[in-house]
UniProtKB/TrEMBL annotation:
Name of the protein described by the UniProt record: HigA family addiction module antidote protein
Record domain HTH cro/C1-type: where: 21-75
TM region positions: none
Entry GO MF terms: DNA binding
Family: Belongs to the short-chain fatty acyl-CoA assimilation regulator (ScfR) family.
Any Pfam family the entry gives: Peptidase_M78
InterPro entries in the record: Cro/C1-type_HTH (IPR001387), IrrE_HExxH (IPR010359), Lambda_DNA-bd_dom_sf (IPR010982), Rad_response_metalloprotease (IPR052345), Toxin_antidote_HigA (IPR013430)
Length: 362
C-alpha cells in the first residue's frame, strides 16, 4: 500500500464567489440594492453572499445567471470549491492538535511502508493514518476500534501497545483484501493442512508461494506482514467481513519452528473458535483455554500429543535422535527442537543448529 497512490492535486486556495459577484456588479454598474431588486431578493442577502455569510443556493445561482450572464453551474462550483476549501482548513487545524494521538502509532515504520508520508506536518500524517484505518477523526478511531474484540496472547514480560497491534492487524487486513481466495470450506482446509505440513522442510522462499496458494484453495488468505515495535506478535487469525478467514504472520522470531507452530496454531483458531474475534498471538505468551486448544491442535497435527510425550519421556535427545523423530513425523527437525524447548525437555540454547532461518528477503 502506498500513500501516494491515493494522493490527488488539491490547490491550496479557493476564490470565494462573493468576490466574483462584487466584480460583476461593478462591471455592470449595478448597486447591491438594484441587483437585489432584479433577482427578487433582499439587499441583505446579496450583501451576505458577497461577505461569505450566506452560501449561493441553486435557485439563487440561476437568478445570477439570468442577470449577469454567468452560468449557474459556475456559481455553484465556485461555492462548493470554496466551502470544501474552508472545511479542509478546519480539518487541518483540528488534526494539527492530534500530535499526542499520532505518537501512539508506529508512524516511522508506516512511512517506510508507504502508508504515511515520510515528510509533512502533523495534520498531513494524521490524515494518512486516518485513511489507513478508514475513519474520519481520532475520536472516530477510538469509537470504531474500541469495540474490536482482540484475544491477545503475549508474554507478561513484554509491554505491548494496542495502537501498534491494531495498526499491524489493519495493514494485514488491507493486504488480505487484495488477495484472491475461493469460498471458505472448512473440510477442505483441514485436508489441505496435511499438504501444508509437507512444506515444513522447504526454505521460506520456496514454501511461501505454495503456502499462499494452498490456503487460497480452501478459502483462507495467508499474509506475511513485518513485525512492528510494541506488538510482540508472531501471528494472528481473524475473519474479514465475517466470511473470509485470514492467517497473518510476522516472522518475528526468525526461525522455522516459531513460524510453523504459529501457522498451525492460527489454523486451529480458524477451525475451532469464534469468527467474530481477532486472535493475536505470541508463541511465548500465556496459555488460557482457547490458546491451549489452538496449541493442542498444532501439536496434534504436526507430531501427535501422545507421540511427543513418549519421545520426551525417553530423556534428553541428541541431534541425530531429533532428526530421526522429525523424519518419522514428516516435519523439519527444527520444529521438534522448538517443541522440546517449549516443554522444558531441553534448554533454549540446545540443538538450535537444527533450526532453519525464516527471515525477510530483500
Amino acid at each position: 500500500m502506498n500513500q501516494s497512490d491515493t494522493t490527488i492535486f488539491r490547490p491550496d486556495y479557493a476564490v470565494h464567489p462573493g468576490l466574483l459577484l462584487e466584480q460583476e456588479l461593478e462591471h455592470h454598474e449595478l448597486t447591491q440594492a438594484e441587483f437585489a431588486r432584479r433577482i427578487a431578493r433582499t439587499p441583505k442577502l446579496v450583501s451576505e453572499i458577497i461577505s461569505g455569510k450566506n452560501p449561493i443556493e441553486p435557485e439563487t445561482a440561476i437568478q445570477f445567471e439570468h442577470v449577469l450572464g454567468i452560468g449557474a453551474d459556475v456559481w455553484l462550483r465556485m461555492e462548493a470549491d470554496y466551502r470544501l476549501y474552508q472545511a479542509r482548513l478546519a480539518e487541518v487545524e483540528r488534526l494539527a492538535a492530534s500530535e499526542t494521538w499520532l505518537k501512539a502509532f508506529p508512524v516511522k515504520e508506516l512511512s517506510e511502508w508507504g502508508a504515511v508520508r515520510r515528510t509533512g506536518s502533523t495534520a498531513q500524517k494524521a490524515h494518512d493514518l486516518l485513511a489507513l484505518f478508514g475513519v474520519a477523526s481520532p475520536a472516530a478511531f477510538q469509537k470504531r476500534y474500541a469495540s474490536v474484540s482482540v484475544h491477545y496472547r503475549r508474554s507478561k514480560k513484554l509491554r505491548a501497545s494496542r495502537e501498534a497491534l491494531l495498526t499491524w492487524l489493519r495493514y494485514g487486513e488491507i493486504v488480505a483484501a487484495s488477495e484472491q481466495a475461493e469460498e471458505y470450506n472448512k473440510d477442505r482446509f483441514q485436508k489441505i493442512l496435511l499438504k501444508i505440513k509437507g512444506l515444513t522442510n522447504e526454505k521460506i522462499e520456496e514454501f511461501h508461494p505454495k503456502l499462499k496458494s494452498l490456503c487460497a484453495e480452501s478459502g483462507v488468505v495467508f499474509v506475511l506482514i513485518p513485525s512492528l515495535p510494541k506488538t510482540c506478535l508472531s501471528g494472528a487469525a481473524y475473519w474479514t467481513r465475517g466470511k473470509t478467514p485470514v492467517i497473518q504472520q510476522s516472522l518475528r522470531h526468525k526461525t522455522n519452528d516459531h513460524f510453523w507452530f504459529t501457522f498451525f496454531h492460527e489454523a486451529g483458531h480458524i477451525l475451532l473458535h469464534n469468527s467474530k474475534t481477532v486472535y493475536a498471538d505470541d508463541e511465548n505468551g500465556t496459555e488460557d483455554g482457547i490458546e491451549k486448544e489452538a496449541n493442542d491442535f498444532a501439536t496434534e497435527l504436526l507430531v501427535g500429543k501422545k507421540r511427543l510425550r513418549e519421545f520426551i519421556a525417553k530423556g534428553p535427545a541428541t541431534g541425530q535422535e531429533v532428526t530421526k523423530f522429525a523424519n518419522d513425523c514428516g516435519i523439519h527437525p527444527g520444529i521438534i527442537v522448538g517443541m522440546l524447548q517449549h516443554h522444558g525437555a531441553i534448554s533454549w540454547a540446545q540443538l538450535n543448529f537444527l533450526k532453519a532461518k525464516s527471515e525477510w528477503t530483500k
